[in-house]
Amino acid sequence: MINLTVNGVQHTLDIDPSTPLLYALRNDLHLHGAKFGCGLGQCGACTVIVGDKAAFSCLIPVSAIGTRAVRTIESLGTAEHPGPLQKAFIDHQAAQCGYCIAGMIMRAQALLDRNPRPTEGELLDHMEPNLCRCGTHTRILAAIREVAHLPVPDTAAASAATYGAMARGGAQ
Which domain of life is it from (predicted)? Predict the structure, then answer.
């Protein structure tokens, strides 16, 4: 038996301890916000918060969670009452296909929970592991900057650097 606390609710699941957290969330707890993207921890569509850190749920076996709390996009708000980051993503039209958005929001939430006023560099570094195949990086970052009360970068060079940093992606 595996015990998990997800979005503040304790669950006991009769699943194999090697089951990826993503599968437990989607298949056993019916929380479908985290998406299966690559299964290799290279895209970030499956990002959730484990403890206080953004994590690729496709890579973490449920047995590795221990007593750390898990938070998914479902914990941040609802369609009727979106949380601040969700509202900013809507206002900035940050989603094109929408597949990456839950992971992007959860990665940003983990940063803002630890550091509500990150620098531009901290924001870019933190968001780099998550990819948006549609290329809405500038709108995603604008939404996060709004919630973090960060200024908009001044130059086209800053925008190019922003897009380049996020488009490269990286390991977590």
Answer: Bacteria
Please, what are the averages of pLDDT over each run of 10 residues along the chain (172 residues)?
97 97 98 92 94 97 97 94 95 87 96 96 94 88 95 67 56 40
- And the tokens for 165? 């940093």
- Residues 6+ away with beta carbon under 8 Å from 8: 69, 75
pLDDT at 157 (0 to 100): 54
62, 151, 47: which is closest to 102 by C-alpha? 47
Contact 149, 135 (CB under 8 A): no
Every domain of the chain and the residues it spans? 2-168
